[in-house]
Specification:
By secondary structure, the protein is of the alpha/beta class. Helices cover about 35% and strands about 25% of the residues. The chain has a five-stranded mixed sheet with strand order 5-4-3-6-7. Strands 1-2 form a two-stranded antiparallel ribbon. Strand 1 (about 5-10) and strand 2 (about 10-15) form a beta hairpin.
């Protein structure tokens, strides 16, 4: 029986168990327009239940400011976003994907957690009380991968990726967690 890492909210806890366990989770990825955590301009979500992807959604979001500082990263410009709904209109429509999930999974979870909390606060919405699994930390613990940028982890695991596309990044994050579970790591 080998030791298996159970990783949630950036903490690694080692347990002796022979097979990975899998929670129902939602992989989430945000793209932001500028340096403000409240500037989500795209979100991708992938719902995993019993080790299988069961639902996916992605939305463009009109950010709170017109200046888009990161077009060079994600390719989204104000022309793509100006007619999109704001976060307060988008997020409630995604609630069904989150209902009943045990946790979120995100690559560099601190970033996505901060964006979710800031956007919910700005919109006057309660942030979901789910904990976050960080797939950066999971990739380091499970396979010793460094660097752990999303493209590096995906290349190592053979996961397809269109980096900085919120839907693709969320799907890749889900696939990383699923691969870790198959390798014997507990995914909370």
């Amino acid at each position: 029986m080998r030791d298996v890492a159970h990783i949630a909210d950036g903490r690694a806890i080692w347990r002796g168990t022979g097979a990975g366990t899998m929670a129902n989770f939602v992989a989430i990825d945000f793209e932001t327009a500028d340096y403000g955590a409240d500037s989500a301009c795209a979100v991708g979500l992938v719902r995993v239940e019993a080790g299988r992807v069961v639902a996916e959604a992605s939305r463009l979001i009109r950010p709170p400011r017109r200046r888009i500082a990161f077009t060079h990263i994600h390719g989204l410009a104000w022309a793509d976003l100006r007619d999109q709904p704001v976060f307060a209109e988008v997020w409630p429509g995604l609630a069904a994907l989150i209902d009943g999930a045990d946790c979120f999974a995100a690559h560099n979870a601190a970033f996505d957690r901060a964006v979710l909390r800031a956007c919910c606060a700005a919109a006057g919405l309660a942030a979901p009380p789910l904990r976050f699994l960080c797939t950066v930390r999971l990739a380091r613990a499970a396979w010793g991968i460094r660097p752990t940028r999303l493209p590096d982890v995906c290349a190592r695991l053979g996961i397809g990726l269109k980096h900085h596309d919120a839907a693709s990044d969320a799907r890749a994050c889900a696939e990383i967690a699923l691969a870790a579970a198959r390798a014997g790591f507990a995914v909370p």
